[in-house]
Amino acid sequence: MTINDLTIPLDGIDQENLLDEWVWLTGDSRLPVLLTKAGDAFLQDRKSGEILFLDTVEGTLQTVANDGDSFSQNLTDTEFVMQYFAVNLVAPLLKSGPALEQKQVYGWTRPPILGGKYSPDNLEPTDASVHFSMLGQIFRQVKDLPDGTPIGDITIT
User: Fold this and answer.
1) Residue 127: beta bridge partners?
2) Which of 121, 154, 125 is nearest to 137 (CA)?
3) Residue 44: how many other CB atoms lie within 10 Å
4) Residue 152: is its pLDDT beyond 90?
5) Domain boundaries, the chain
6) Distances from the Cα of 97 to the Cα of 3, 55, 61, 64, 124, angstroms
7) CA–CA separation, 71 vs 10, rounded Å?
8) For the chain, first and last CA: distance in Å?
9) What residues contact residue 107 under an 8 Å CB cut-off, 6+ apart?
10) CB of 67 closer than 8 Å to CB of 50
11) Of 16, 59, 60, 124, whose Cβ has the fewest other Cβ atoms within 10 Å?
12) Helix, strand, or coil here: 42?
């Protein structure tokens, strides 16, 4: 399995606006440079050049490399790839699940933040822009709630 097996091409994806619903977390100086089939994103800060990982399961952002060269080196590290590309989650889908079409990621049928299982059975091909928009809106609405708070109402626009 290669990085190309675990990512989707950025061709035809509006990188400038893909993460509009995540600006509350990412700020506006970061641009997606790599999208995983599991629906997460690696972003590069336009000012510093650092690479950050947007985890759409946890709703978190963390720095993973100081620059593009360091990030490229990380992509050759099996442990890094296993950790950040959700290999155990998407491998069964790549082997026998529904294939992704252009501009699709495996999105949650029911996101884990809303009680869905972290399982390949809970994933389906989803347009990348819809995936990132919906999860960004959900996490923005619940970000200030204490862990374990029952969620009764979510509004998706």
Assistant:
1) 104
2) 154
3) 20
4) no
5) 3-142
6) 18, 22, 29, 30, 9
7) 17
8) 37
9) 39, 123, 124, 125, 126, 130, 131, 134
10) yes
11) 16
12) strand
Dihedral sign of CA atoms 66, 69, 71, 76 in order = negative
Instruction: Count the Cβ atoms, other than its own, within 10 Å of residue 104.
Output: 20
In the chain, how many H helices and how many E strands?
6, 7
What is the Cα–Cα distance from 59 to 49, expressed in whole angstroms? 22
CA distances from 86 to 25, 35, 46, 90, 98 (A): 21, 12, 26, 6, 17
Residues 128, 106: Cα–Cα separation, whole Å: 8
33: Cβ contacts below 8 Å, ≥ 6 apart? 10, 42, 43, 44, 51, 68
Nearest to 32 by CA among 53, 57, 58, 47: 53
Residue 143 Cα to chain centre, angstroms: 17
pLDDT tens digits, one per residue of 75-88: 999 999 999 999 99
CB 92 within 8 A of CB 72: no
